[in-house]
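Q: Structure tokens for this one, please.
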Amino acid sequence: MLSLSLLIGSFVHAQTEVGARIGLNFGNASLKGISESIDPDFKNITRFKGGIFVNQPLDDLLSLQSGLYFTTKGFEYGESFPVTILGADIPIGARAITEMQYIEVPLLLQINPLKDAKVQPYVAVGPTIGYAVNGQVDTKATFIIDFNVNTFDLDLTKDMYNRFEFGGQGMLGVKIPYGKGNFDFGMSYSQAFSKIIDDTILDIQVRNKAFGLHAGFSMNLNGSTANSGYAML
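A: Here is the predicted structure, written as tokens:
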């Protein structure tokens, strides 16, 4: 009983960090199904991401983090070809940009190998769960210049859409102690295991994937200079 009390006390009094992070998400998607026959060329879309987090040290090497983040995922698909008019090649084409906004909660185990260094690297990995709150498709046409054609909302209540997303995430970064907190810079890669679109009629299955960059700052709840790393997204 005494040892259990000491363990709980050491966990509670560990230097818990709370902070915020902003960054960019370079979203794309992987596709399986009938559309593979046309070899779709999906392109990245770049969108904002941000949120708040908490990091709880487990020991001198490991910490556990969770948080609440807002992020946009999706992809762009289009076709274009040049048309020669009066000896000049004029681009003509169309493209569609699919976006879905998520509330996401990661649970990452982080390794902090050099917690007392001036620049402290870290590696984090773990599962994520997200919920799609909104979605839309932007269609654009190209004739010399791009112009909007139409924007329509996705009806995420339809059976072909899966609003819950389960995935995994890995991250690499550094934190730099400053005053009573830490600056943090890093990059991440996330891959959805669940399908966001599963059309059984057309046999189309789509999964999100994304590369991210982030910057943030955290503070210790106990007010002392941070000695353990943190990371999310």
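A few notes: The chain has one helix and ten strands. Helices lie at 2-12.
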